[in-house]
Amino acid sequence: MPHLLYIESSPRKQRSASIEVARTFIDAWQAQHAIATVDTLDVWNTPLPEFDGAALDAKYAGIQGIERTPEQAQAWAQITELAQRFVSADIILFAVPMWNFGIPYKLKHLIDVVSQKDLLFTFDERGLNGLLDGRKVVVIAARGAPLDRAEHQIAYLTTWAEMVGIDEQYNIVIEKTLLGPEVDAESRSAASKAAVALAATL
Ligand SMILES: Cc1cc2nc3c(=O)[nH]c(=O)nc-3n(C[C@H](O)[C@H](O)[C@H](O)COP(=O)(O)O)c2cc1C
Fold this sequence. Notes:
By secondary structure, the protein is of the alpha/beta class. It has helices spanning 17-32, 53-64, 70-87, 105-114, 154-163, 181-199; strands at 3-8, 37-42, 91-97, 121-124, 127-130, 136-142, 168-174.
């Protein structure tokens, strides 16, 4: 049964361009797959563990091959549970606003928590080996203005996807959402059409 992990990272909810287009994508994708399932992970409503103390020590214990203390093991169990939601997915859909040329800090927090050795990748002297190969990533990226500086939104998620072993990625951009209601509506409409067309292929 195809399974999609939908990662929502805009706090604008009803007004959000990335969420609007992501929902269009999900509806179209579900219409193609009679028995598909969707797991929604809203980074603004999901408790994300702080990555210090026992969680940080649990990471380094794993890298050094040292047994984790009970406190570290408990912290690691919470991280493993979140990472498992990525492992279970066939498609990982990111709906992501551009914030200061990159991604919102809550999404970065999620990525920093789940991107762990032996959960999403392994590494040895030959380098990184992603464990999510065979999955697909879809990025629906909203931006207020036309891009005139370095892009750290899609580029960052592409680097992350490659690290975890995913090389099949599709991007849909909704640009100029801050340039007035008409421009915003046009941009959303074009991106929604692209989302429906993409969903038909996945
Ligand atoms: C904190 C913050 C930072 C932003 N930084 C940028 C930026 O660097 N470049 C840009 O084009 N738009 C920027 N914007 C505008 C958003 O990208 C735009 O409103 C977009 O539509 C947000 O996606 P959403 O509608 O899905 O929330 C920023 C908005 C916020 C709230």
